[in-house]
Every structure is written in structure tokens, then in C-alpha cells.
Specification:
Order of helices and strands: EEHHEEEHE
Shape: globular
Helix content: 25-40%
Low-confidence stretches: none
Strand order of the largest sheet: 5-1-2-6
Number of domains: 1
Length: 98
């Protein structure tokens, strides 16, 4: 199933999971939470480290965006884990050069 991670009512990213429990576990992982605090959209972090993170089934439109971004050849390519493919549903800022 395609699921969406939401913060403060905004759909942030979509990914695939076997079920909502697995999706919640993935969304609660340190790796995902760190990414959400590191990435920015319109100059603000995607997550402030405090707001609740919700996980829900994707709408039809969100699932279509996910499938389009993933492409038709996905199932033919070797991938370690379907959850490794993430589609951000908000525009991301370009990373700053260090």
C-alpha cells in the first residue's frame, strides 16, 4: 500500500509499506526523523522535531504521483526495500553548499 506521512495536516512524503503499522514504524525511525529535520521547504525544516507525525493511506491522487515518480520499470530493477523509495509531496529547497 502507498502511505503518506503528514505533519500539521500537510502531506509531506509518500512511500510504500505492507500495512499502516509498518508505515508508522518506518515514519518513526531515527533515519526518517533526521531527514525530516534536515530537509527544508520554503526555508523551513519539514519537521521541527516536536509536531505530531501522522501516517495514513494515500489518496488516489497521491498514489498516482507516487507511481508516476517510481516509474514503470521499478519492479524489474533490483531494490533492497520498497520503503527505500520516497516521493516528497512538497517542494524541497536545494541543499546549501558547505
Amino acid at each position: 500500500m502507498i502511505v503518506v506521512l503528514e505533519i500539521k495536516g500537510t502531506a509531506i512524503l509518500a512511500f510504500e509499506a505492507d500495512n499502516l503499522d509498518d508505515a508508522r514504524a518506518h515514519a518513526g525511525s531515527a533515519e526518517v526523523r533526521e531527514e525530516l529535520t534536515d530537509l527544508t521547504s520554503n526555508g523551513a525544516a519539514l519537521w521541527n522535531g516536536k509536531d505530531a507525525i501522522a501516517v495514513r493511506a494515500a489518496t488516489e491522487a497521491e498514489a498516482d504521483l507516487f507511481e508516476e515518480a517510481r516509474g514503470e520499470d521499478w519492479e524489474e530493477e533490483p531494490h533492497a526495500d520498497p520503503e527505500d523509495f520516497t516521493v516528497y509531496l512538497v517542494p524541497l529547497d536545494e541543499p546549501e553548499d558547505e
